[in-house]
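[audit] Reproducing an earlier prediction to check determinism. Same input, same settings, fresh worker. If the C-alpha cells differ from the archived copy the diff job will pick it up downstream; this log only records the rerun itself.
[audit] input (228 residues):
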Amino acid sequence: MSAQYGRWNFRSVDVTSSDSEDARALVAPFGPDGERIYRNKGLTVIFRAFSTSEEATTERQPIISPSGAVVTWNGRLDNRDELIRALGGPLSFFDNDASIVAAAYDLWGTRCFEKLVGDWALSIWNPEERILLLARDFVGVKHLYYSVDCAAVTWSTVLDPLVIGHNLALDESYLAGWLSAFPAPHLTPYGEVHSIPPGCFVSLTARGHEIRNHWKFEENSLSQRWRI
C-alpha cells in the first residue's frame, strides 16, 4: 500500500527539518515507487507511492484540485466509471483514482465520502476554510491515525511516526477493550493517538475537531458523533 504523513501547525510555523526527515524515513518502506513532499505555510504532507494498477503509475500526490484543495489518497476506488460519468467535465477513464477523488470533493464537499466505494484512507486540506479532513471507508481496511494538541495536528497511515520518539501513555480503555471483547474503533494503544473509525471522517480546525459518520448501516439511523 502507499503511505502518507502530514503535519499542520496551526500558527503556520513550518515543520522542522529533523521532524520531517524522521517521518520520511519511517514511511519510506511502505512506498517504494517514489516520494513527493508538499509544503505550504505550516503544512507538510509526505506521500510514498506503491503503484498497484496502471492508473496509479500516473499519480503525483498530493493532488492539488482546481479549488486549491490538497488531496492525498491511499487505496483503491472500485466505482471509478460511475464517478467519472457523474462528475462529467474533463475527467476521462484514464485518470487516476486520486484525481477522481479530488474532483469529487470539489463538486460535493464532504458528501463525496459516501460515494467512494473501495478500500481507502484520505486526507484533504482546504486552504480557503483552513480545515483538515481525514476519512476512511466503511470497512476500515486502510489505517489512518492522528494526534492533535493546541499547536498542531499530525496524521499518518503508519503508526510509527506518531509514536517513535514520543513519550506516550498507554490507553487503559484500549487495553480494557482487548481484554473484554475488542477496543473501540477510534482508540489505539496510546492515549494521545487516535484512529479514524471506519465509515467516518474527522474535521479539524485550529479551534477543535469533530468525528462524523459518512456511512451507516441503516439509512434512517441517527449519525453518531464522537468528541475527543
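[audit] rerun output stored. Observation attached for the diff report: Residues 138 and 199 are 4 Å apart (CA to CA).
[audit] end
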